[in-house]
Specification:
The protein has 400 residues and is α/β, with parallel strands linked by helices. The chain is built from 10 helices and 14 strands. It starts with 6 loop residues before the first strand and ends with a helix. The model has no long low-confidence stretch (mean pLDDT 96). Bound molecules: pyridoxal-5'-phosphate. Pathway: Amino-acid biosynthesis; L-serine biosynthesis; L-serine from 3-phospho-D-glycerate: step 2/3. InterPro entries: Aminotrans_V_dom, Pser_aminoTfrase, PyrdxlP-dep_Trfase, PyrdxlP-dep_Trfase_major, PyrdxlP-dep_Trfase_small. It comes from Sistotremastrum niveocremeum HHB9708.
Length: 400
């Protein structure tokens, strides 16, 4: 099949605009008329230094990142950050409160889906007898069936630890596997508005740059892999507040676990993300994607397009849910704009729909292997027209 005949609804790595990939292909062969391709340049060259600066500055402008925060680029993906967050923020907390007993030093996890669950498990692994991970809330307890991730629990259900003992509070803004998202009502920052705010950490991997980030300045750290909305895998973007850039070796002397230098946020900041060779190609494509977004008016208009895409799709799905044909997996108010999850009541109908979609070039619609059903990912590169074509196939396969 030709690229023009396909719509890629994959959950990531996912679709990128064709025009951007064409431009990237040219730069791969010959960057800025150097006669050398982008991935053949030195990462210490002037050309790449400019690219690094441009990427930083376009993210800063588009997301309105305050000057209190650094924007850093690294590798290792969201999963790498599950580990880095623990190591850096425990080091920070040890410097601030060296005398706490391990059982008093707490990492607070809000678990609303498969990815925050994984991050919580990694925190338990890496606590290493120096701290404990606290499950603030497990959203499965407030789910319809008692076992699925289908909601963001009301703040009244949350059990946050005492603020001074808390090394950080962690949440995942958009749960890619389950289709659960915070942004409808946004994170309940009012819970943290006391005299001492523990650092707030957010995994934005699958919603980064799909709309503005509410109360960005109130986050100590935001991280995201590029491979959903803005580029290829390999690039991880960090937005880090100054006070999180701590001397991990000084913390080690006070009893914290050692931190690999490539994972220490201060190392990345001190070297402007060039401590070691960065993911050059992924940074390049991400810059081109963001320039394309900027040329079309930036995050404001993009948010409106993304709002519209999910609204028309959920509307149709809710209609079929009322008729008993399918079930939306996530409760109203917690539904993701980026990953729409549902299942057909009759598995034969589901099979027919998937086959019919595939034959029309609508691909990667199967739900994550751990949860099944259907998952439609509506990242930035998916257009409203393409969502409408999916809806037509859905109507046709249901004989409507
Ligand atoms: C929300 C979220 N966090 C973390 C990850 C892990 O990312 P990576 O595969 O880049 O380690 C993913 C991957 O899909 C994700 O969707």
């Amino acid at each position: 099949m030709d690229r023009q005949q396909v719509v890629n609804f994959g959950a990531g790595p996912s679709a990128l605009p064709t025009s951007v990939l064409e431009k990237a292909a040219k730069g791969l062969l010959n960057y800025n008329d150097n006669g050398i391709g982008l991935v053949e340049l030195s990462h210490r060259s002037k050309d790449f230094a400019k690219l690094n600066d441009d990427l930083e500055s376009i993210i800063r402008t588009q997301l309105d990142v305050p000057s209190t925060h650094h924007i850093l680029f690294t590798q290792g993906g969201g999963s790498g950050q599950f580990s880095s967050v623990v190591m850096n923020l425990l080091a920070r907390h040890t410097l601030l409160h060296p005398d706490l007993k391990p059982e008093e030093r707490v990492m607070d996890y809000i678990v609303t889906g498969s990815w925050s669950k994984k991050a919580y498990e990694e925190a338990n692994r890496l606590a290493g007898g120096k701290a404990v991970a606290n499950l603030v809330v497990d959203a499965r307890r407030t789910s319809k069936d008692g076992k699925s991730f289908d909601n963001v629990p009301q703040p009244s259900e949350w059990k946050l630890s005492p603020a001074a003992n808390t090394a950080f509070i962690y949440y995942c803004e958009n749960e890619t596997v389950d289709g659960v998202q915070f942004s409808d009502s946004s994170f309940p920052h009012h819970l943290l508005e006391n005299s001492f705010n523990p650092p707030l950490v957010a995994d934005y991997s699958s919603s980064f740059m799909s709309r503005p980030i509410p109360r960005i300045a109130d986050h100590a750290l935001i991280f995201a892999g590029a491979q959903k909305n803005i580029g290829p895998s390999g690039l991880t973007i960090l937005i880090v507040r100054n006070d999180v850039l701590v001397d991990v070796d000084a913390a080690y002397k006070l009893g914290a676990n050692p931190v690999p230098l490539t994972m220490a946020y201060k190392t990345l900041a001190d070297s402007k993300s060039l401590y070691n060779t960065p993911p050059m190609f992924a940074m390049y494509v991400s810059l081109l994607v963001l320039q394309d977004i900027q040329a079309k008016g930036g995050l404001g208009p993009l948010e409106e397009v993304n709002r519209q895409k999910q609204a028309i799709l959920y509307d149709v799905l809710e209609g079929y849910e009322e008729k008993g044909i399918l079930k939306l997996k996530v409760q109203k108010g917690s539904r993701s704009w980026m990953n729409v999850t549902f299942e057909f009541v009759d598995k034969q109908v589901e099979k027919t729909f998937l086959e019919s979609a595939e034959s029309k070039g609508l691909k990667q619609l199967k739900g994550h292997r751990s949860v099944g059903g259907i998952r439609v990912s509506l990242y930035n590169a998916i257009t409203e027209e393409q969502v409408k074509s999916l809806i037509s196939v859905l109507h046709a396969s249901l004989g409507a």
